Amino acid sequence: MVALKKTETVNIRIDASTRDLIARAAEVSGKSVTAFMTEAAQAAAERELLEQRFFRVDAEIFGAIDDMLGQEGKVNEGLRGLLHARPAWLD
Asked: Which residues contact 24 (CB under 8 A, 6 or more apart)?
């Protein structure tokens, strides 16, 4: 795996107790504070972006999706059977 060259800097101001908490967590995980904060911030950013519920699409795509959603649903007998089956761990 090729490590990306780190060329950007981010400066933040935090209180001492938060800094200590982050430093302890970084130490426990065997990472530097920089690595720990970078990974945590990246994970939070990805999670936030994935949770967005607004999708911008052009009118043609929207129309196609709207048409599909307007169609009557089809029963999936395999799924129906699975959902009605008694889970093995309850036996």
From this structure: none
**37: which residues sit within 8 A by CB, 6+ positions away?**
22, 26
Per-domain boundaries in the chain = 16-71
Supply the DSSP symbol for 89.
G
Distance, CA of 33 to CA of 26 (rounded, Å): 5
Question: Do 48 and 40 contact (CB within 8 A), yes or no?
Answer: no
Residue 21: its H or E element: helix 16-28
The per-residue pLDDT for range 70-91, each reduced to its tens digit, is 999 999 999 999 999 998 888 7
d(CA 69, CA 83): 23
Report the alpha-carbon distance of residue 49 to residue 80 in Å, rounded: 33
